[in-house]
UniProtKB/TrEMBL annotation:
Keywords: Transferase. This is Nucleotidyltransferase. Signal peptide: none annotated. It comes from the Bacteria. The keyword Transferase applies. Gene3D superfamilies: Nucleotidyltransferases domain 2. It comes from Alginatibacterium sediminis. InterPro entries: HepT. GO terms for molecular function: transferase activity. The keyword Transferase applies.
Amino acid sequence: MSVNPDRWKQRLQNLQRAQARLSKACEQESYNELELAGLIQTFEFSFELSWKTLKDLLEFEGYDVASPRHVIRTSLEARHLNAVQCETLLDALIKRNLLSHAYDEKHVLEAQALIVNSYGPCITNVTNYLVKKNLDE
């Protein structure tokens, strides 16, 4: 299988745009019902792009990875993530489906807190690392 050396860099551009939207959404003081739905959706999209960008980078570096869990764990081994980022992204992976089906107020508020306080900042840190890595090459 031939790996496009620019694929991870191309996907990184999409991740940067998604992460910027997520950061902006996380900055709000309060949310109405539609804004909360948008926050969760923006997180889902950003999370998908995060692990897929890491996957493309790992494949470029010669790793054979497939599932999101394998990508996240291998990213730790390859030193693209630190232990806290790895655990945060694994937690986000586990809770991703729960977050997308958060219909009652308790679960929606739990999703908001996780995204604003944990997952969003982690995605920002990972994106910043990847941008720096791209610039250093």
